[in-house]
Fold these 2 entries.
Entry 1:
Amino acid sequence: MPGFLSRRYTVVIVDRASGVGRRFSVKLGWTLGTVAFCFALPVLVGLGIRWGTVAELSALRTNTLALEMENHSFRATTGELTDQLTALQGVMEELGNKSAVDPEVARAMQKLPTMIKARAMGGGSTLPPPSLLASALSSPEDTFGLLRNVLGRLESQLRLVRFDVERRQALAAATPSIWPALGWLSAGYGERADPLTGDPGYHQGLDISADRGKPVVATADGVIESASWNGNYGNLMVIDHGFGIKTRYGHLSGFAATVGATVRRGDIVGYVGSTGRTTGAHLHYEVITNGQTINPLPLIDGRR
């Protein structure tokens, strides 16, 4: 076979018009190699292009898959953040509704001693500083991470706000803000002459004159602490409203609630009478904060 490929061949090309001829001597092996190369070159170029295209397509598929996974992760994260925002919006709307307090009750709350109001106050929380917010824009992952952090802090802050709102609502419910009986004010709070002896004295509540048997109502939400005879007070009911606030209802002709019962503002708890040390049918009403009586009139003035 090597001898066959090494043979030389002479090719004669003659011009018919002039009779001039040319001779070319070629080797069979070189000629076949050249022809084979000419046929193989397009095939090799095509294969190279095909392999390059396959590699590029593979890289594109890999990138596409990575982008799809990243996009799916972003969609999932966005969905979680949207759900969290929706939940927080619902909480804020709920807190907005709960934070509303009757203007008259709010006015009465402002008249309470500072120590009582302080018991219904809570703390606060802070959001990330602006520098941290700016640094979060470097990548989507960092942005999502910061958003989670901000929403988490906001959620924690809203929990504190919810606690504050609930405490304020509880204080509003516990604030004596209505008249305990329908009648006329026959004696105020403070220094006065004793109605029986005329001696100087100090009146620790309000006297509201009314017909015997007229209903007496709780002036705020609370629990009946006691309902029994108590010397000069006669039939006396004491309601514990929490936050260090209590109210007393004296000279009652009868009780309409029992010890330990929970009552709401406006519930009937007894009836006007003249039991104990009194000159006639009336209700003696006191408000006690932290063990000391205060003037009930500023809390209920204007509301009947």
Entry 2:
Amino acid sequence: MLASIDIGSNTVRLLLGSVENRIVIPAMYARRITRLKGGQTEAGLTAEAMGRTLSALKEFSGIIAQNNVVATRVVGTEALRSAPNRHEVVTSLLDETGLKLELISGDEEALLTTAGVCSAFDTSSSDFMLVFDIGGGSTEFILLHQGDIVFQTSRRLGVVDLTESLPDYIQRETLISTTVTSVHNMIEPILEKFKVLPETVTLVGTAGTVTTLAAINFEMTDYDWRKINGSSLDISVIESIYKRLAPLSVSERESIPGMEKGRGDLLPAGIEIILELMQQFRATKLTVSDFGLLEGILLTMPTIYRSND
């Protein structure tokens, strides 16, 4: 059994599973919303946010100890990459749980996410595929051509920052549009080289915003990753959910089946990123991947711990 932990800007996640013939076999999945990046100042992450996160990691450490786990990899993403006091979390985690935290770059995060997504789909069947991972502190964009990465970038466009720092819709939309336009402008020459129109690119989204949208669409009371993985969302459905959420309070949003508590204030900003991306690529449909960074971590752990590789 292998274990991967992702310490994100909003959520801490744990996956226990194995890898057989390059396929991830999940055994257990757990997540805790700790809002690590919430309230961050120039001095860094707040003591309260670090405390919530450490509490979740202590719980996960206990779960790992109770199972037949032979190897564990713990990674930290944008919240920790950009925090001046990130070393406090690294030190506390090792001292109190024995877990060694590894801070990964945006580029490595994109690579691991792509590995996870590709394990769930036959990416070679699509000529061009744009995978995006909307997180609390950053969004990764990865362009695949017949399964091979031809472009990737990580941008500091995360739903926690957007929600807390730019509550004004117009300011938030301006930043989202500027960032997505920049990414689009970098991808466009690649598509032109292959004489491909943007609307022929398959969009695949992973992480909390996208999977929550799918769960709301399915009206899920109990989250089922098997039903989420590979499902699709029409742009009309996404727009409808956005309009439904907009006038509601956070508590009202979180009473909707499929909505995870702790995500009600963040989801609108995430949807705004998706809609801007779909508009710029003239996409009418979005494919949903439940697999991503956690699965990518398992796939890239030492071969000695995996079966039939």
